[in-house]
């Protein structure tokens, strides 16, 4: 069972945690269905940032009573010169 298709994939996980700074296009979560895209986040299986900013998570209840965790990115303000 060394190599080949029988080896389990290890890249499915959270790539960032809450409070981390991310850049545009950076992958936030890959292959985990329990997280949904929120504000400034796009994607279905792989969630990535649409703008540079700080990551935060929110929980919301759906109309069916299920609690979902959303990944959001709060844009950072550019420093004025």
Task: Characterise this structure.
This protein has a single domain (15-75), classed as OB fold (Dihydrolipoamide Acetyltransferase, E2P) (Beta Barrel). 0% of the residues lie in helices and 43% in strands. The chain contains no helices and 8 strands. The strands form 2 sheets. It has a 4-stranded antiparallel sheet, with no helix packed on it. The protein has a 4-stranded mixed sheet with strand order 2-7-8-4, with no helix packed on it. It is flat. The model has no long low-confidence stretch (mean pLDDT 87).
Question: Which properties best describe this structure?
Answer:
single chain, 81 residues, mainly beta, OB fold (Dihydrolipoamide Acetyltransferase, E2P), four-stranded mixed beta sheet, flat
Tally of separate domains:
1
User: Helix tally?
Assistant: 0
Round the Cα radius of gyration to an integer and report it. Answer: 15 Å
Q: How is the quaternary structure best described?
A: single chain
Percent range for helical residues? Answer: under 10%
Query: Which CATH C-level class is it?
Result: Mainly Beta
- Overall body shape: flat
**Unreliable segments of 5+ consecutive residues:** none
């Amino acid at each position: 069972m060394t190599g080949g298709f029988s080896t389990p994939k290890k890249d499915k996980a959270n790539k960032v945690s809450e409070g981390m700074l991310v850049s545009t296009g950076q992958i936030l979560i890959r292959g985990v269905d329990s997280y949904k895209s929120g504000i400034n986040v796009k994607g279905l299986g792989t969630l990535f940032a649409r703008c540079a900013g700080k990551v935060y998570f929110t929980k919301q209840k759906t109309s069916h009573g299920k609690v979902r965790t959303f990944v959001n990115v709060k844009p950072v303000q550019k420093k004025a010169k």
